[in-house]
Write a structure and sequence with these properties.
about 170 residues; alpha/beta; 4-stranded mixed sheet; two-stranded antiparallel ribbon; about 10% strand; disordered C terminus
Length: about 170
């Protein structure tokens, strides 16, 4: 880890108490859980119901982590640009059973009462696949098991777009 749990809590608390939202990169269940722990602790110490804190990547999850994310009102900053490469390695890294719970953006959508890929658009996996997941060089742009066409979608300066989905609350 880059930060100890104490350092992570301290940094999140500093932003939270100044009413600045945090977007924390967390890859893996343990990192995901530790970010949730830190935000839960900070929110309990100093409630800020309108926060827009979030987790970047949010791909290695479990149903329980997604429920927790919803309970905390967190954003999921998903990055479909990685799906093409990750689908070839995820089962090897986390096991077949757990791989079926990962990249579960449909479950995120089902948990969300409102979500957005942009301030005026509603997020959905079908929109994501057809507009936001650029294929890797030399690839077809189709993720395994998906028939939707993926096309390039870039933000300012050519950076890949990061989609946002707030679970359980309006976007």
């Amino acid at each position: 880890p880059i930060y100890t749990e104490e350092e992570l809590c301290s940094r999140i608390r500093a932003a939270h108490t100044a009413h600045m939202d945090v977007a924390v990169h967390a890859i893996g269940d343990l990192a995901f859980r530790k970010v949730c722990d830190a935000i839960e602790w900070v929110e309990r110490e100093e409630p800020w119901p309108d926060h827009r804190h979030g987790i970047v990547h949010a791909q290695t999850t479990t149903p329980a982590l997604l429920e927790r994310m919803k309970a905390l009102g967190l954003q999921a900053y998903i990055q479909p640009i990685f799906i093409d490469a990750d689908m070839n390695i995820i089962a090897e890294r986390v096991g077949e059973a757990h791989a079926k719970e990962c990249y579960n953006w449909k479950a995120m959508e089902d948990l969300a009462s409102g979500s957005a890929a942009a301030p005026t658009a509603r997020w959905s996996p079908s929109t994501c696949w057809t507009t936001c997941a650029p294929p890797s060089p030399g690839r077809t742009g189709r993720a395994p098991g998906l028939s939707a066409r993926a096309g390039p979608h870039r933000g300012a300066g050519g950076a890949p777009v990061h989609l946002r989905c707030r679970l359980g609350q309006p976007g």
